[in-house]
Write a structure and sequence with these properties.
The protein is α+β, with helices and mostly antiparallel strands. The chain contains 4 helices and 10 strands. Helix 2 runs antiparallel to helix 3.
Amino acid sequence: MPRAALLSILGIALLGSTVLLNSRTALADEGFRVQVTITNITRGQVISPVVVASHSAEFEPLFQLGTPASAELAAVAEDAILDPLIASLSGDPAVFDVQTLFGEDGPIIPGESASVIVDIKGNYRYLSMAGMLVTTNDAFFAVRGARVFAHGTSTHHSSAYDAGSEANTENCDHIPGPPCGNAEVRVPDGSEGYVHIHAGVHGIADLVPSMHDWRNPVAEITVTRLTGK
């Protein structure tokens, strides 16, 4: 075969490979949406509105077990204050979309399921989220870096974590949720100082274990790819 013809065929082949590569890249970057549904599966703990973020693999986890909680996560775990965490996530280049998930009346009551739509794109195919168990001193549930798949539905479960930023007094003077209603009253003395699996409610003060305690997991999280985008 003449050299010129061979080079011409090679050029066409390379062009075809480039087109295919570009097509695959475009497919990888094509955005879609998922519906994130959280079900409160405790008997007597209300879950605060939940911060949900889509992000890349480069995103630093919301927390590491055995290390101190960030100030932003502690604000969620202690008093369901979401704005600092939302601001931190929104300014992170590894984060693509940040949403707040609300129950019908704001918090997610026991047995309730609530949903929010989150955008996914390119390498931003992971989800993290956190929300407070409000009848505690500093308990929260969380998902850290759950992979989002392009098709179907995935289900995850979360234990209750302790932010370790407050003492677990179980005293209504220090607890924002029902039946207490005392927000932003911190008791750092006696706190553990690191994030760990929460030991539950023991009835040492005002909280009633038969109502406010739990057996893990405390939340079920379902992620469903939506069609049409």
